[in-house]
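Assess this today:

___
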Amino acid sequence: MGTVIKNFKQLDLDKIYTYADYYSWKIKERVELIKGKIFKMSPAPNLSHQRISRRVSKAFYNFLDSKRCEAFVAPFDVRFPKRESKEDDKIYDVVQPDICVVCDAKKLDARGCKGAPDLIVEILSPGNSSKELKYKYDLYLEHKVKEYWIIYPEEQTLFIYTLSKGKYIPSKLFTIGDEITSTVFPDFKLNLNTIFTENEQ
């Protein structure tokens, strides 16, 4: 049996890890694996990030009430297995999206979600790197996440990528005053005034 990892400093940032490694770690820091490489997540989300996450997730919770799909908020592990192998030691991608919606109950287990959610929302923090964003974009596209939202709290804007014929089609840039809908959930509507306002909802 190998050494139990209890401190982030014990990890080799140049090494390729699997979900089996990830699940065995006893560290306090939140990390993600993309192609087996470690990405340390940003510190605790700030007030704006927390408010936006709560408001968007609440909108999804209310909309999905009594429907077969479920919304989940971080920390919630989403594993992306390769098609040919789903064993823990063959999974090299595990992320914690701010919000995700899963419609296939067979993908859910006690550890989170194994397979692509139908919709993922990422709320950017100052610590998010362009490299991390690029890797996640490629990861979600590769595994056919149907819809991928990126929210920019400081700019008060939102961008949606919609999967079509194996490619992501970008939306226009949405901002305060806009009402957005979803191709995954055509009846869902979200007014961005309610998301970005500083007043408590």
User: Anything to note?
Assistant: The first helix runs from residue 19 to 24. The chain has four helices and 15 strands.
